[in-house]
Amino acid sequence: MEEEVIVFTPFPLESLQGNTVSAKRIALLLRHAGIPARAVEEIPKRGQLEASALIALHACRSVAAMEQFAKNFPGRPRHLLLPGSDLFRCLSEGDPRPLPAMEAADSLVVANEGLVDAVPSAVRHKVRVIPKSLAIRVPDWAPPVANESFRAIAVAHLRAQKDPFLTVQALELLPDLEDLEVVHVGAEAEAGWGRRAREHCLREPRFRWLGEVPHREAVELAATSHLMINTSFMEGGANAICEALHIGLPVFATAIPGNTGMLGKDYPGLFPVGDALALAALLRRAKEDAAFLKQLAKASRERSSRFTSELETRGWLELLGGAAGKMTPS
Fold first, then answer.
1. pTM metric for this prediction
2. Shared-domain flag, residues 160 and 255
3. d(CA 25, CA 242)
4. Are residues 212 and 312 part of one domain?
5. What CATH number does residue 48 fall under?
6. Could you tell me the strand order of the sheet in which 180-185 lies?
7. What is the Cα–Cα distance from 126 to 330, expressed in whole angstroms?
8. pLDDT at position 86, please?
């Protein structure tokens, strides 16, 4: 029986949660490199397949999966890919789950260099930086022409750590920009947030919540928007920002480690966490200054070279090769 790398997501495989999107992408990259791999939402039993290694996403949510894998496939390496919620919520709030899982893991993976210092010092020696990339082809940036609304898109599931309604606050500070709109894409991830989104849509007609839409549709909507907004309190490296970079789409994002690690600390579209006034100022400038928008697009395109499928594949192959018997692509 052929050995396979198991890529575990704590969310359903059919969901559009970032962890599932990443798990599927990693498994696909490995298969393209000749390494048998599959994304799973449950750890398989021995006899169903032979596992060469585990890549688990999310320390807080993968503790049981890590333990089950060790029981089913003793001695096989276990790697953890850490999202922002592990590093900036679970650990900071004293959640007892992530640190033991990190200690048990053979290696800890983060998606960009901005996250390394957030890993506890006791296990920081295990950290590997493996940049994320894209699982789909993206179109080039093609914003609407004149006489169309100036559209900003936000792509994030509705939950507290994403601070999704900061964009509404910014719009309310710009009452004179009647043709400015924010379109938010993402499912309700915490109870009550969908109701709040609908209420905001009624009070602020320039804000539209589309809910969850197919991945391809979201990417195409982003490519035909003027810019993307990320308002998160914490990120481990947003898939949507990676897509924006390759589209060449201008980005406004909170200046948090997960975002600056993707965009660079000097990226001209950064603003402080929770600062609606700063976001409003950036939106006004983007709306009124075409040269600024082009500067942002150029910065995005230049940054995209750090997050390619070739670099991500190489990172995973080096990690697996070093810990799982020198695996090489066939």
1. 0.86
2. yes
3. 13
4. no
5. 3.40.50.2000
6. 207-211, 180-185, 150-155, 227-230, 251-254, 270-271
7. 27
8. 87
